[in-house]
Amino acid sequence: MCTGVMAKCLGVTLILLSMIAFLANILLFFPGGKEIDNTNHLSEEVWYFGGILGSGFLMLLPANVFLDLKYNDCCGCCGNESCGKRFAMFSSIIFAGIGFLGAGYSFVISLISVRRGPKCLMDNNKWGYPFHDGDYLNDEALWSKCQEPKNVVPWNLILFSVLLIIAVLQMLLCTIQVVNGLLGTLFGDCCGGYRRV
């Protein structure tokens, strides 16, 4: 497969994953699927915008670069088109690194939130985090510590888990593009055979 075609496939997949991450982060602003009257009652990690910034907008930059690599020859260099394509593939490695960092940010935020659990109204009529060190993950009976919003525990757990999985997939795809970019830099676009410079 051509390195440019491979990059385009990775770009399309990253854009799709970015849209899902963006949507998941927006849904976190509606705990339990309901509008909340006080934004101070939202989990702290929701405000870090891991899905909107890290796996969302920041991932769109490398994804769009990957989409255009098949056709980008950087106007050639020294009159040699292949040289321009190689430079474009080399630059994709930098953008893959940016994407990896964005997905890493979303991964860390999501992991912290899954381990910490949601902010909710507890038995003592105070808002806080009733779970410690992910204890609620193995014991569903503990979920009753959250009285309001209704169903906030599975809501947060599912959405932050989705963001966690998306971040892992995005980091994997960016790593694949680093390898693909190195191959494209060293050997050029392999369609029609390797071109010697």
Tally of domains? 1
Low-confidence segments? 75-79, 193-197
> What fraction of residues sit in β-strands?
under 5%
Q: Which structural class fits the helix and strand makeup?
A: mainly alpha
Question: How are the strands of the largest sheet arranged?
Answer: 1-2
**Which quaternary structure do these chains form?**
single chain
Structural notes for this entry:
Its main location: membrane. Helices cover 59% and strands 2% of the residues. It has 197 residues and is mainly alpha-helical. The protein has one domain. The chain has a two-stranded antiparallel ribbon with strand order 1-2. It starts with a helix and ends in a 10-residue tail after the last helix.
Question: Could you provide a short overview of the structure?
Answer:
With 197 residues, this protein is an all-alpha fold.
